[in-house]
Predict the 3D structure of the following.
Amino acid sequence: MQVKLHPGGPPPPSRRLAWPGRDDRRGNGLYMAWQPLALLQDAGPGRNGRWALFSLLALLAWLALEQLSAQLWFLPAGLRLALLWLTPSRRWGWLALAEVIGQAIKSVLLGYALFTPTFLAVCVAPWLVYAAIVYLLRGSRPGPPPDSPTRMLLFLLAGLLGAAGVSPLLWMFLVTYPMSTADSLASMFAFMYGDLIGQLVLAPLLVAVAHGGLRRSRHLGLLRDLGLVLLAAMAMFLVLQAYADLATYVLLLAFAPLFFLGFRQGWAGGALGMTMLGLVVQGLVQAGFLSVNVTMLQLVLAVVGGGALVLGAASTALRQSHLALAERHAELAVKTRELEALAAELGEVGQRLVRLEEQGQRELASELEYELGHAIHALGTRISLAFRDVRDEQGTRLLESLREQVREIQDSLRRALRQLRPPQLDSHGLRQALETGPLREMLEDSGVVFEPRFEGDVDALGEDARTTVYRICQAAVREAVRLDVVRRLVLALEVGPGEGGHRVALTLDLEFSPYAQHLPALEPVPGIKDRVVAVQGEYLLEPQVHTHRHLVRFVAGFRH
């Protein structure tokens, strides 16, 4: 069968850009909601046009951020770190092209020569240093969102190492007059702090926007908490404006509310707070309302901002773990209900199988009694009639022997029929069937003492419950007969009212001879276990002194 694509229809799957997002029906087509992260993390072949456009936008953003840079920060360093972190290494060539062209435009506007050692060291080498460090820490694949303390520390470490690696190059080619060792180190730290503050103020916010962290936040709560943080910071800055000597004691308090924002709103909220607070600080410094040493501002903002971001990542990870745990609990609750329903169905199936087994044994007993019983009775009658025709002593002895064998066969058949289905269980009830039925005869024939004890209305149980109790006792009796060292079997049956039916508690104690040298291991009896599972009861084993105790508890429905 051939499928034709009409003009204007959707492009073939091989040429379609698979961007993750929300599917929305518009007309007869499929609309894919655009996300910034989709293009940034696209590592497929082709699509050079889109990446050329993105490179142009990155170039314009770099030029704009460079104009906003000041002594407090170098904002293009934040853009550089964020794009390297979000983009697969296969696409880094477009990022390098955008930054190098931006540096070239800046150099041309300032009248500097291009393609000189200074241009290469100041405009090209920093990007290569950042790219190498990010590649070593992250690999070729896009970096994950820093939503855990470990990931956030790795992200901040990449920026710190990049700034530390670039600062010696900038000092070497931008500082042209001689300096002492202390001044040289101070100059390197100044370059490093400029890059680091630019990263902290811009890079986490860009990553948060790309990953949709702010879009998924609770906007009202975020705006409220952000307003409180800015008000607290402004109050501290007003104090510093009035009393500049208090900078050593008050400056840290101005940035401390970032911890509150990170704890309340996660790492995305902390990133937004860092950007807003940085803008406030830069605005106050440029307006002359904040006369604090820039290096001190950078140091405090780096320490408090980094700590707030790590705390926010820990808070986000904790919330995500709580959500995952809640979902897991919901799934387990659903599975539990399914298992309960399945257990109820299996219980019903088990009851049906037990009833079929009992019905089969009843019918088998009836057939054996009808077929074999009548045949054996007829054989005995013929042997009795044969006595009239036999006159010799040898023939009489033979007939006596045959008649005795027939009586033994009749007795064995009667015992077998009582084991299959004792008539007393249907005619006289459970209690008499246990006290004087075939189970006592089996134990007496094996030399085992039988002590039954009853409490409650035993005969009030329904047919299924009576059969279950009797078969459990029968399995215990067979176990006692099988073990040669059992000297007594104590049966305690208690029937009382319970929720939804009769509460049945059956205790079977198999007492061993005190002279037995080796006692058998305490193991569940299969016959007991199968019956207990069929009624969804409880089967426990308790070792006693020279005794194995089998405890059975279940709830039987009311007798109909």
In short: The first helix runs from residue 36 to 40.
